[in-house]
Amino acid sequence: MDVLHVILQILLGITSLLLTLLILLHKGRGGGMSDMFGGGMSSGLSSSGVAERNLNRFTVVLGVTWGVVIIALGLIMRFSGGDS
Fold first, then answer.
1. What is the pLDDT of residue 34?
2. pLDDT per residue over 24-49, tens digit each?
3. How far is CA 27 from the centre of its chain?
4. 0.85 cut: is pTM over it?
5. d(CA 53, CA 40)
6. What is the 3-state secondary structure (H, E, C) of the chain?
7. Distance (Å, whole) CA 31 – CA 43
8. Angle at alpha carbon of residue 68, lines to 65 and 13, rounded to 5°
9. Is the dihedral of CA 35, 36, 39, 41 positive or negative?
């Protein structure tokens, strides 16, 4: 069980870094805080190209993987008594 715990922690670290990188690679959609207060008009929400759509898909898959790893780590810690 310890080997699985270590593998999941390493996977969590890698997916966290990759998810952060992928989110930062996305194109901005508006003016940030100014849009919240009605200061700007944002463009359409659809992706412009194939690369952007693939980036969106990869980000979603990586986000789901990240969530599954966190749930698995939580279950392992819960049922192993939390000694790790």
1. 54
2. 988 776 655 555 566 555 555 555 68
3. 16
4. no
5. 24
6. CHHHHHHHHHHHHHHHHHHHHHHHHCCCCCCCHHHHCCCCCCCCCCCCCHHHHHHHHHHHHHHHHHHHHHHHHHHHHHHCCCCC
7. 10
8. 65
9. positive
Tokens for 37, please give them: 């207060």
pLDDT in tens, 44-69: 555 568 988 999 999 999 999 999 99
Ramachandran quadrant class, 27 (left: phi over 0; alpha: psi -120 to 50; beta: rest): beta
Q: Could you tell me the CA-to-CA distances from 63 to 21, 67, 68 in Å, in that order?
A: 12, 6, 9
